[in-house]
Amino acid sequence: MRIVYASRTGNVENIISRLNVSNPLKIEDGSETINEDYILFTYTDGYGDTPQEVEEFLSNNSNYLKGVIASGDTEYGEAFCKSGDNISEQYNVPFLYKVENAGTQDDFLSIRKILSDKA
User: Fold this and answer.
1) What's the CATH number where 45 sits?
2) Sign of the alpha-carbon dihedral angle for 76, 77, 80, 83
3) CB distance 84 to 70 below 8 Å
4) How confident is the model at residue 87 (pLDDT cuts 50, 70, 90)?
């Protein structure tokens, strides 16, 4: 299964790099396309918003979306990783994992397990 991601501050990009994912697709402006099953890694913008480029990407590529993993900051309280909640609800896919910022070693172990189960 392919990995698609969006990263603004580098946290999500760091997660993808540390997972040693082969051939990930980075969302730059939302115009990218994909024609295979994928899991989306995204950050949370503002106070719980889905990033604009991710919304644009999903508007044209949601057919193959199989799950979402979101990064956020717990200091935002109930808005922590809210973009993942939004995407999960809007596209009826599982919200697989919440990561604080760039994640911990335990996060990477959990995410690797999720990805291997979805492969």
Assistant:
1) 3.40.50.360
2) negative
3) yes
4) very high
Residue 23 confidence (pLDDT): 95
Residues 42-67: b if buried by 16+ CB within 10 A, e if exposed:
bbbbeebebbebbbebbeebeeebeb
Place of tokens 């950050």: 43
CA distance 51 to 62: 15
Domain tally, the chain: 1
Task: Quote the DSSP letter at residue 49.
Answer: B
Q: How far apart are CA 117 and CA 119, in angstroms?
A: 6
Q: Which domain holds residue 63?
A: 2-118
The predicted-structure confidence for 12-65, as pLDDT tens digits, reads as follows 999 999 999 899 999 999 999 999 999 999 999 988 999 999 999 999 999 999
67 φ, ψ (degrees, to nearest 5): 170, 165
Place of tokens 């990783």: 81
